[in-house]
Each structure stands twice: as structure tokens, then as C-alpha cells.
Amino acid sequence: MTDVASKGPQAGDDRAILTNRQGHPVYDNQNQRTVGARGPATLENYQFLEKISHFDRERIPERVVHARGFVAYGEFEATGKWGDEPIERYTRAKLFNTAGKKTDLAIRFSTVIGGRDSSEAARDPRGFAVKFYTEDGNWDIVGNNLAVFFIRDAIKFPDVIHSLKPDPITFRQEPARIFDFMSQTPEAMHMLVNLFSPRGIPADYRHMQGFGVNTYKWVNAEGETHLVKYHWIPKQGVKSLTADDAANIQANDLGHATKDLYEAIESGNYPQWDLYVQLMSDDEHPELDFDPLDDTKVWPENEFEPKLVGTMTLNRNVDDHHNENEQSAFGTGVLVDGMDFSDDKMLVGRTFSYSDTQRYRVGPNYLQLPINSAKNAKVHTNQRGGQMSYGVDLGAGQNPHVNYEPSITGGLREAQYPTHDEQGPVITGRLTRKRIPRTNDYKQAGQRYQLMEQWEKDDLVKNFVENIGQAVREVQERMVWHFLLVDDELGLRVGEGLGISPDDVRHLEPLQSQTLTDEDRERLSNLG
Ligand code: HEM
């Protein structure tokens, strides 16, 4: 007689029965099937094989960046306006058009560099990715908490990330490698001044801002376009940590930000962010001393006032971390009618990269998963097959034999273009590889420093000195040279901490990879 015979449901136990994925009841989940009590095991042990081989495949590759993150759900409520003006003047995107209109959304907050179990108190940009499930399909804003980025051309992304990721041999994040790269990347100064200030370690996910960073377009019913940037402002306020605060937190808990968000939502303390939009006419804006498509720049708020368009409330946690977090997929290509891409050279590179990595990381049918599917829109494609395909998205009355287009025997048809002519700018140019003309790498970095409170400036200088101090002398000197061009005081203070005076760096020539403004040249000639 086997052990199984002695078990069986106890009277009054109404818990569901454990089965395998074939729907077969599991009678014994403690013992493999063996020849005799001491083995050997048999190969026809289907229940055991299914269980262990599924376990062997439990992990999918973690994201190449932003591996650690946490998803929550909520809704977006529109004001129907851009500030005081009807929003239809600028965009026909339906989710914005009516005051009080609500749209379901998912959000994923993340760190960038660490692996999926790494510390959430690291000095690192934070990801702020929102997926709106609109009636016209999904819209993603995939942003960060610092408003700008290290680089302005997508071709440099693998390099900047390699410099920030662990050393390929020691597998430690090495400030010497980071500043080796950054010292040769003048456009990174604005991001570095943010990242090494307390803003570089947000207190948690609820108390940080989010920014779309890249420049997009809005399109109205007449087809007129405007350039826009998105800003999420937390109603909870903004809180940041110094390196010492962060060290104390991560000594006890690597996941404090996830815990904070999860518990706030579980207890009904729903966090909220207002969405503000900056907007400018769709042209090159030669009057500005920066390029509006440059993601290392912010748009001055006194000239381009951010105006409210709605509020996001997070009110639900995930049911399963793997299904809804690990398999979630956000991307900059995911826009709805009423929105468009700008020619921002980062944006176009990102737009390729996200869905490319997701087809590899999650699989070619990643958009069939509930977290990623356009659940509030009608989806009918002629896509079939591929790993893990399930369900066929037939349209009402569609002939199921017709998975091609065009067809006159009951297939899907193309949509009508919205009734307008394209009115974006006409662009002509020679194919080339060139920097944008208005790089202006230092001015906004200096303004950012000048706006900081004294304790933030002190923390920034301390962090720079500690980290850059680990790099070789030439890198330290080049960083001091950059900082003197950013702001005299910042350059002098970091220099002092590293034992480098303006006289020590006066001989340095501008990098080949930079274009200096007249103002930069003037500062250069006055160095020291
Ligand atoms: C994630 C590429 C710049 C924000 C990712 C991923 C890739 C990637 C491959 C992993 C996606 C996945 O596995 O699902 C790039 C490239 C960039 C770039 C090639 C530049 C050319 C940026 C910038 C921002 C940003 C400028 C911020 C504005 C994010 C966020 C995620 C992410 C928030 C995580 C999305 C999530 O939570 O799943 N990026 N990225 N990235 N990136 Fe970027």
C-alpha cells in the first residue's frame, strides 16, 4: 500500500486541490515516485518533472538597465485643459480632452544600474515609467526623476551604461571608470550636478518627481504640432537622502522604497502626482541658447510655464511581482493619436531599443500579456505564432482564415487617416554624423548648482570629491576644468578637495568632442 492511499481530503477542508498544469490532481507533493522507498527514481515521473523543470525556468533575463523596480496601478484624471486653455487647441489625444475623464494606468518605478535585488538607496537615477491604457491604445511615458540625461545621442548609450555598470573583471561599480567616461563627456555635467546632489538619492518612490526628459510633440485636430515636455510633481512633496542617510537605510533594508510604496497603497494612503506639460512651437527656436530637442537641457520654466493637465492616483498593488513587474514592458514608441515623436536623437534610439530588448527579454508575444496589452482598446492584428502565442485577436465578423491584408474575403481593413494634412516642419539636410550646433554644456549645470540650498551644495561637493578622488589624476584635473566652466565656486571647491588649483588645469585644451560657447571661452580665458 502507498502513502497516497492513507491521505485524501479531510472532512470539512474546502481548500482547493493542488494540481499540475495539465489539471491532474497532485496526490503526493512530498515524495517522488521511486522504485521502493529508497529509490531509484523513475523517468516517467511527470508530476515531478513538470514541477522541477518549470522551477528551472522561473527567471527571465533581468532588464539590462532598470532591473530593480516595482509596479503599481492607478488612474489618471484629466483637467480637460492645458492650464486655462482648452487642451484640444494643442492635442486631440482623447485621454486629455474632458475634465474628470479617467484612464487606467500602470507605473513602474526603478533604479538604473543595480541588478534586480540591489539596493534602492543607491545613488542612481530613478526610472518613472507610466503606461496609460487609453481607448485609443496604450501610451507610455518612460522618464526619470532628474529631468535630464547624461548624453544626447543614442549611439553613446551602451558606453555611458558600461561606465556606470560594474567593472567587467572586478564586478564592482568603480568611480574611476565612471569619471573616466564622464570627463570626456561634457554634455553629462548637468546630469552629474543633479545626480551627485541629494536629488541623486530620492528618499523613496513616493517623494520624487518624474520627467519625460525627451521632447515629444502634441498634434491637434488640424494636424498642427507643438513640442512638449512632461513633468510629474508629487503631492507628497520631494524628499532626498544624503549618502550617510542612505548608508544607514541600506544597512538594514535593500528594498525600502518598494516597501514604502506597497505599504502606502495597502493602507489606502494613495500617492498622487500632478502632470504638468511645457509646450513650445514646433521649430528650431534659434532665439534659445540650447536646442529644444536636447535631453541634457531643461526648458526654463519662466519662459515655458509648465501647466497642469491632470492627476495620477496609485491605488492598487500587483497580484504577482513576476507577471506584472518582471514581464512589464514600457517604451518610448508607445504613443496614441494626438501625439508624435520629435527628432530628438535620443528618442529615436530609445524607441528602437525598448521593443527590441523586450522581444528578447520577455518574448515576441510580450504584448499579449495582461500587463502590456492595450486592454481598453480594440486590438486586431494579423500577427500569428511565435513563442508563447495564445489567443487570436480576431475582429468582429472577421473571416478567421484571412490573416493577411488586403483581402476582399472578410479580413481586416486599414483605418482612415484622421482628417487632416500633415503640418509638421519640412526638413531638408545632408546625411551626416554631427553634433547639434547648440551644445551649451555648462550653463544650465551652473544654474542648477546656483539654485541649490547650501547643504545641497556642500553634499554635492563632498560626493564629487569622494568619488572623483578615486580616478587617475588626469581625470580629476579634467573634471575640475569642467566644473570651473560650470560655476567658479563649484570648480574651486571640488578642486580644493582634490588638491587641484585652476593653475593646474589652465593648460588643458577643450575636448575634440565639444563646441564651446562665447561665454565658455571667456570663462576659459579667465581660469584661475
Ligand atoms: C529601461 C534603453 C535612455 C528611462 C530601458 C531598457 C533599455 C533602455 C534597453 C530596458 C527595457 C526593458 O528591458 O524592458 C535605453 C536607451 C536609451 C535610454 C538605448 C538612450 C538612447 C533613457 C532615458 C531615460 C530612460 C533618457 C529617462 C528619461 C528608462 C526607464 C526604464 C528604461 C524608466 C525602465 C522601464 C521599466 O520600468 O520597465 N532603457 N534607455 N532611458 N529606461 Fe532607458
Automatic annotation (TrEMBL):
CDD domains: catalase_clade_1 (cd08154). The keyword Transmembrane does not apply. InterPro entries: Catalase, Catalase_clade1/3, Catalase_core, Catalase_haem_BS, Catalase_immune_responsive, Catalase_sf. Its cofactor is heme. Residues 1-33 are annotated as: Disordered. It comes from the Bacteria. Keywords: Heme, Hydrogen peroxide, Iron, Metal-binding, Oxidoreductase, Peroxidase. PROSITE patterns: CATALASE_1, CATALASE_3. Gene3D superfamilies: Catalase core domain (2.40.180.10). Pfam families: Catalase (PF00199), Catalase-rel (PF06628). Residues 19-413 form the Catalase core domain. Its EC number is 1.11.1.6. Belongs to the catalase family. Decomposes hydrogen peroxide into water and oxygen; serves to protect cells from the toxic effects of hydrogen peroxide. This is catalase. It comes from Motilibacter deserti.
